[in-house]
Design goal:
Shape: globular
Helix content: 25-40%
CATH topology: Aspartate Aminotransferase, domain 1
Number of strands: 6
Structural class: alpha+beta
Order of helices and strands: HEEEEHEEH
Number of helices: 3
Length: 111
């Protein structure tokens, strides 16, 4: 599945002032690594965010969100957000901020 280039550009713009951002092709799209940790992905027309696992259940109850499922299990700390949830800048900024706020305490994946 191709990813939405305009959405990826919005994410790039949101992360422009943040040092140590790297882009990697993964999760059927493009992933933005912050401090060598997966933070935000663009897959199709959706954002996939790494968030505080304690917030997962609360956030997936919002319309236009869904959990990340891997091996048949819901992955706490990862959610998909559909385009309808971030059409305006205020909503977009909210989702980006949730991922960035969690990033400093997120564990790095093993190399």
């Amino acid at each position: 599945m191709a990813y939405n280039e305009k959405l990826a550009d919005r994410v790039r713009e949101a992360l422009a002032e943040i040092p140590d951002v790297e882009e990697k092709k993964m999760f059927r799209g493009i992933t933005f690594m912050v401090d060598n940790k997966m933070c935000i992905s663009v897959s199709g027309d959706e954002l996939m965010l790494r968030i505080d696992p304690e917030m997962t259940e609360e956030l997936i109850e919002e319309n236009g969100t869904r959990p990340m499922v891997h091996g048949g299990k819901h992955m706490k700390g990862f959610i998909y957000v559909s385009e309808e949830r971030f059409r305006n800048q205020k909503d977009f900024d909210r989702w980006i901020r949730l991922a960035l706020d969690y990033n400093p305490i997120a564990k790095s994946s093993k190399k």
